[in-house]
Each structure stands twice: as structure tokens, then as C-alpha cells.
Amino acid sequence: MRPPLLVLAFLVAGCASDEPAASEFRVRRLPPTRADVIEAATRMQEEPLAGHSWCKGLVEDTKSATLGRYLAGLISWQEPGGVNFVDVDLIPREAPVGKLWQATIMFPTGDGGEAYVNYGVMFMIRQSDGLVLASSFVCPGTP
């Protein structure tokens, strides 16, 4: 899955600061494994989604819209007997702040037919030290 250039530009623009977030996390291995990418997203669970209207729109209680609550909602949509899996992707990117990995975790869900949804989270990881850039989180998806 390749995001449109506009999405990539938005992600990189959000990565301009080298200041660590209050909920700073660095992945364990470079390059990160699938498990490292998933761990990074779960460790950033308190990250607020206040600036991400698309993410907030998928959280039941928008007053407590955090990354953790958003991910919990996506996981809760998984249905027994349905088409359910976790798709993790890591793509190297160049940005004004240096080399990054664009990490994407998607949760395709459906009943085995054509009707399914595919929502997830996308964020950047700095290649030099594995720092997860908190300001880079966005919520791609297709209803």
C-alpha cells in the first residue's frame, strides 16, 4: 500500500521537530521487525488524537480519544469466522529531518465477501536511533 504524496507530505511535516514527546519510545531493533512496529504503536497509547479528526471520528468517546483507545476499537471489530488479520508494513523514506521508516499497521476486517473495512495507523520512526515520532501519527483507512 503506497500512500498518496499528500499524506506523505503531511507525515513529514509533522516530523519537523526533533523534540521527544512526553511519551517517548524507541524501537528495540533497527530496522524494526513487525513486532517492534506493533509494540511502538501500543507503547504510544496515551498519544492524544486531538489533531486527527479522522482518527477521532472512529473512537466512540471522542473526549478520551487516544491512540490506545483507537487501536482497541479497531481490534474489537475483528469478528470470529471473518476475514481478520494485521498487516504491518515498513517503508524507508527520506525527509528534511533525516532518514525515516514509514510504519503502517492496518486491520482489515470483513465477513469473507466484498464488504470489509480497512483502518489502521501510520507513523514515522527515525532510522538513526529508532525514535517513534509522536507527531507523525495519522489514521489511514477505507470504509
Rg (CA only): 15 Å
Q: Biggest sheet, in brief?
A: 6 strands, antiparallel
In which range does the helix fraction lie? 10-25%
Envelope shape: globular
Number of strands: 6
- Which range does the strand content fall in? 25-35%
* Continuous helix count: 4
How far apart the termini lie comes to 16 Å
Q: List low-pLDDT spans.
A: 1-21
- Label the structural class: alpha+beta
| Arithmetic mean pLDDT | 79
Q: Spell the H/E element sequence.
A: HHHHEEEEEE
Keywords:
143 residues; 31% strand; single chain; alpha+beta; disordered N terminus
Overview in brief:
Helix content is 23%, strand content 31%.
Description:
The radius of gyration is 15 Å and the shape is globular. It has 143 residues and is of the alpha+beta class. The chain has helices at 5-13, 34-43, 53-56, 67-76; strands spanning 83-84, 87-95, 98-110, 116-126, 132-138, 141-142. It contains four helices and six strands; from the N terminus they run H-H-H-H-E-E-E-E-E-E. Residues 1-21 have low confidence and may be disordered. The longest helix is centred in the first third of the chain and has 10 residues, at 34-43.
